[in-house]
Amino acid sequence: MIKNFSVLYVGNIELEDVGLSGSPANDRMYPNNRLIESFETARQAAVLMDELNFYALWMAEHHFQREGYECIPNIILLSTHLAAQTKKLKFGCGFNIVPMWHPLRLAEDYATADILTGGRMIFGVGRGYHSREVETFGSPVIDNDANRELFEEQIEVIFKAFNEESFSHKGNHYTIPPEVPYRGYDLKEITLVPRPQERPVETWQPIVSGSSIEFTARKGFNGVVALTGDQLVDDIFHKFRDACVENGRGGILGEHLALGLGFYIAETEEEAVNNLRPFHDERYKWFSPFGFVRYADEEGRVWGTPGAPARTPRIEDGVEQKAWICGPAEDFVEHLREIERKYPGLEHVILHWPEGMPRDAFLNQLRLFAKEVMPHFQSS
């Protein structure tokens, strides 16, 4: 049953000249005083969401994005700052790109934030997809197999550090600790200081393929499926349920998952679509080249795969695929009721902040959602 509503803010600044006919994504370049707008936007969103009883503000880790789409390089640090200005809102790491970290530094930083925020952090891990980011930090992402191997060993190190009072590790990428003398004895093990107070550490990972389904279920992580067509959502939810059953985690559809949706509330669907269109289109100008069009054709093929559409999607495509919900609040309520009926184990819905949408416009959408949609679920 849906009971927790959150927001994903990837760190976009307010972009001018948005839409398919607007400035090309690669031509955007903003000065530092514009790029840091994302921090103030995150602050205002967090304070408002706390007042409106949202569950969590999820933010994304990205680097070097002078184009203005994703401008938060350290979500753990920013979340700790925002926790001091709010009372109960949680902060989700959506996601820490593990290959860009030394796993022990990530474990230490998260543990410190867990303690300083009183347990209001939500750990999230991802493998990355921007070659400019991951490869610049010296890790592979173009070589998918090498990226996966590194990531999985890093996860092993992180959770040894979280859960064991002292530990050692020897793998293809890390020998921890190094075999060196220390204060008169030979170093054999180390202890993470501090370790998180909230253990086991609740961990979330994006799900986009069969390999991520199996890994997430096997590790006991939770999965996020976002801005994905309803046909693909249904396939992923069933496969994840089956993988969880195989790993002894229960068998209710939607359990251990969050569904991410785009939205715009207006008096009519036409008004909502027209208001959302330039920001939806700006998103896909930026993300389509990375393969982030998670829609299916009539035969169930993902857009961009052989035989399926390869074009940049229109907002009408997103509405048809039920990845974007546009129209009156009562229609959104009914859509969520339908999702509850299909996936009775689903508790978490994450609302996506469209790239480039002005701060005040989106915060007003959150006010509408909190007033007209959330009460139908939080009182049930």
What share of residues are in beta strands?
15-25%
Biggest sheet features = 8 strands, parallel, barrel
Task: Tell me the domain tally.
Answer: 2
Number of strands: 14
Question: What is CATH's topology name of the largest domain?
Answer: TIM Barrel
What's the total helix number? Answer: 13
> What structural class do helix, strand and pairing data support?
alpha/beta
CATH architecture of the largest domain: Alpha-Beta Barrel
What do these coordinates show?
- The chain is of the alpha/beta class and 380 residues long.
- The chain has 2 domains: 1-86 and 207-380, Luciferase-like domain (TIM Barrel), CATH 3.20.20; 95-201, no CATH class.
- The chain is 39% helix and 15% strand.
- It contains 13 helices and 14 strands.
- The protein has helices at 32-35, 37-51, 75-83, 103-116, 131-134, 144-163, 210-219, 230-246, 269-287, 315-320, 329-342, 359-372, 375-378; strands spanning 4-9, 56-59, 90-93, 96-97, 121-126, 169-170, 175-176, 181-182, 185-186, 203-206, 222-226, 257-265, 324-327, 348-352.
- The chain has an 8-stranded parallel β-barrel, surrounded by 7 helices.
- Helix 7 (210-219) packs across helix 8 (230-246).
- The radius of gyration is 21 Å and the shape is globular.
- The N and C termini lie close together (9 Å).
